[in-house]
User: What shape does this take?
Amino acid sequence: MNKLQLHGFNNLTKSLSFNIYDVCYAPEKQQQTYIEYIDEAYNSDRLTHILRDVAEIIGAQILNIAHQDYDPQGASVTMLIAEDDVIPSGMQTLAPGPLPDTILAHLDKSHITVHTYPESHPDNGISTFRADIDVSTCGQISPLKALNYLIHSFESDIVIMDYRVRGFTRDIQGNKHYIDHKINSIQNYIADDTKEMYQMIDVNVYQENIFHTKMMLKETELDKYLFEKESNLSSDNKAAIQQQVQAEMAEIFYGRNFN
Assistant: This one.
């Protein structure tokens, strides 16, 4: 591929945002145990490991990591990254851990963040874990390279993704370029075997370089959605739970309540 010759730094900002949902059935006696399990499974240490992998996949240099676990549940990780291996003069790298309460910092070109939201329905036993992930880069590194890894790093029943290219960069002739790669859908960058597993909808605004894709698993085998295996469930109970799970997924996917 012929590289575009630029005047100075590539100033395009490429942002990829995920909402990833994992749906589970945990009746009242199991709900607290489920929340504790998911909170531990996706604590800030685990999330930091995932984001480190993302930085490696996209070819970014980590400048700074801040992470925090919350009470009663949830966690956040923020990572500042750069395209170059050389840390700018005056930039201090900090060891992984929470930042001080107040900090004045130089933000480099790019960042990766994740926030988690475990929650449960008060009555019907449906619990939904959500992870919000943002990968924003400038320069030649692209967040799209980490797309498939992130989808498979979580139990992704539903994935809602937004990708946007902002700003412009200028070539050596002085012409402005508002995007530096070909794309007509986020689906262009999703692996074929993953696409076969999901129902997908696109809403794209090509003239604004805005791309939106929603994914929902096609197959929902009940055993995968039971937090604890229930050997004494009747056929009617199983059918009702299956319907609850599918209704929860459909409401999230279409963004509205059906009841």
Notes: Confidence is low (pLDDT under 50) at residues 85-108. The two ends are 52 Å apart (CA to CA).
